[in-house]
Amino acid sequence: MRAAALAAVLWLGACGEATVLPLRADEGVRPRLAEPVRTLVPTVNIAPAQRWPAGTAPQAAAGWKLSNLAAGLDHPRWLFVLPNGDVLVAESNAPKRPADSPGIKGWIMRLVMARAGAGVPSANRIRLLRDVDRDGVAERREIFAEGLNSPFGMALVGDRFYVANTDAVLEFAYRDGQTKLDPPLRRLTELPAGDINHHWTKSLIASLDGSKLFVGVGSNSNVAENGLAAEEGRAAVWEIDRVSGSKRLFASGLRNPVGLAWLPAAQGAPRLWAVVNERDELGSDLVPDYLTAVDDGAFYGWPFSWWGNHADQRVTASDPRRATPVRVPDFSLGSHVAPLGLAAGRLGGREGVFVGLHGSWNRRPHSGYKVVFVPFEQGTPQGLAQDVLTGFLDAEGRARGRPVGVAVDTQGALLVADDVGNTVWRLAPARALP
């Protein structure tokens, strides 16, 4: 019965609606924006999770050498590189969410997500990988922390290590070279969670001076269909005082801000940047997911509008924020690409960011399922994103892997967490990059 219901939904969701924009027209600083498309059943175009057959791997762009830092992991989602070169991997998935998407629609969506490889239980731990001889393969694997609650973001400031669980930021003592954390010293601050907890991941980054932590908190819905009260404190980036644990809303209207990174600005201090997953069910060509600078006090429109002041007619609730000026995002990554990982780095002598695109479910044809590099000039994105790691989809449209977190290790190599392939891939420059 479940298989029949899923097949019917997939068939209905695949009928009639598909992208009409030219290839890559919805990307860049000035993306072309289509008209919204509403259908009785949302477009559902899942790439079934098949994992990597023996002897296969993603395809690295010219100038990169791909290796397997560690395989056989348990749903690796997020990465953090310690100063001594150890790589931390959050093996994590969604917690129990009894009130998230109840009813037939929610049941169907859970079946769909399970087909995409997102239905496994959370290991609730952080694993440490140590490449002793620096050959691109981790010889040592240790359980760095366990008994966590859907951990995701990580940060280190001096001798204090921080983990963003789905419901709180925890503070631990840390010593250089340590392979296992002692129990947490304290719960630094609580984070929005609860029985819905629709976007459960909580990203984390420290300020450059170490005095603050910044946390990305996603929305509790697609477009506030659970009511605005359920969105209190969500769809936002929070600033946390590292000493007191007190927090304040830093920026809002960001449906699901996941990866966070600091990048130099053309003038003044470096700026905080984020990649954001936008809303669904407005057609294959809407809404563009994006990369943007996150400025103090800025409002980015969710749920009332998208890409600036394009009103979402599905949201009718009155709210004072409707009168707030809306900040237009800086750079479109394309519609439904699901950007998650974000890391500052360099490619071919240019500074920019690497972005892990987890991949679409609400678009025909598929989009995302790769790692790209967005070049910057004078502190802003320029041109179009460049492919760095591809091949996550096979010729039949099955997902052999899905990229999530990205990080740059102490040797300058790019690390990619693959939560379907249960692998951390490593890309090292094989020669002078073009």
How would you characterize this protein structure?
By secondary structure, this protein is mostly beta strands. The chain is 6% helix and 35% strand. The protein has one domain: Neuraminidase, CATH 2.120.10.30. The longest helix is centred in the N-terminal third of the chain and has 13 residues, at 2-14. It is globular and about 55 Å long.
The gist of it:
The chain has 434 residues and is mainly β. The protein has a single domain, classed as TolB, C-terminal domain (Neuraminidase), CATH 2.120.10.30.
Layout of strands and helices, then pairs:
Layout: H1 2-14, E1 59-60, E2 64-70, E3 76-81, E4 87-91, H2 103-115, E5 125-130, E6 140-145, E7 154-157, E8 160-164, E9 168-173, E10 186-190, E11 202-206, E12 212-217, E13 236-241, E14 247-252, E15 257-263, E16 271-276, E17 288-293, E18 305-306, E19 310-311, E20 331-335, E21 339-347, E22 350-357, E23 370-377, E24 380-381, E25 386-390, E26 403-408, E27 414-418, E28 423-429
Q: What structural keywords apply?
A:
single chain; 434 residues; mainly beta; Neuraminidase; four-stranded antiparallel β-sheet; 2 helices
**Envelope shape:** globular
Number of domain units? 1
Taking the alpha carbons of the first and last residues, their distance comes to: 53 Å
Order of helices and strands: HEEEEHEEEEEEEEEEEEEEEEEEEEEEEE
Mean pLDDT: 93
Going by helix content, strand content and strand pairing, the class is mainly beta
Strand content: 35-45%
Largest sheet: 6 strands, antiparallel
Helix content: under 10%
